[in-house]
Amino acid sequence: MSLKVEVEQKVLSANDRLAAALRERWQERGVFCLNLISSPGSGKTTLLERTMERLAGRVRAAVLVGDLQTENDARRLSQYGFPVRQIVTGGTCHLEARMIEQHLPAVDRPDLELLIIENVGNLVCPSSYDLGEDAKVVLLSTVEGDDKPLKYPGIFRRARAAVFTKVDLLGLTDFDIERAEEHARTINPEILTFRLSNRTGEGLDRWVAWLEGEIARKRAAR
Predict the structure, then answer these.
(1) Taking the CB of the first residue and of the last residue of the chain, which one, N or C, has fewer CB atoms within 10 A?
(2) 52-148-178 Cα angle (round to 5)
(3) pLDDT by residue (tens digit) across 92-144?
(4) What angle do helix axes 204-220 and 44-55 make, rounded to 10 degrees?
(5) Backbone angles phi, psi at 34, to 5 degrees
(6) Reduced to 3 states, what is the DSSP secondary structure of residue 29?
(7) How many CB atoms lie within 10 A of CB 176?
């Protein structure tokens, strides 16, 4: 057991060093980097589609998409005119900083303002790996359990924001969004919360306004 812990610590230490270098690069260039994390099926890719639609022509963005096997998500996102690169992990349940560094040249550009990383669908492993991002954002849909913040406190503790998706389905399940938000704030009192429906558009304007505000602040801090 001690050998396993030692190996894991070395892996995370190497990851953190590379993530710190990536973060310094973003700081120097004024790029805001976002790491989206959720269970499979919460609506990460659909949220990215709706976000890209609204940012087209307004923000110079790029997307790195993590998945175990397919390139389906990259194909969906490429239609919005932003550079997109699929990172196929081949079974690894999370993205690592070395993967970001390896695939970054495919989407990077001198005038980049926003880099969005869509992590592999998983609430556990991705929370432990720093990718050099400015903010982790965790998604939770209303067809999941409203106690997930308590079951997966690591990601809610590390996240800057929690996005509650599929709010158009509230009332069709037992999901209590007020209770879910309360649980999230119990874990992280500073966490921002958004209520969104990718289908109806509810809440998307506030989400995009937050993104644009963070982009502007990052560029001003160069």
Answers:
(1) N
(2) 80
(3) 889 999 999 999 999 999 999 999 999 999 999 999 999 999 999 999 999 99
(4) 70
(5) -120, 135
(6) helix
(7) 15
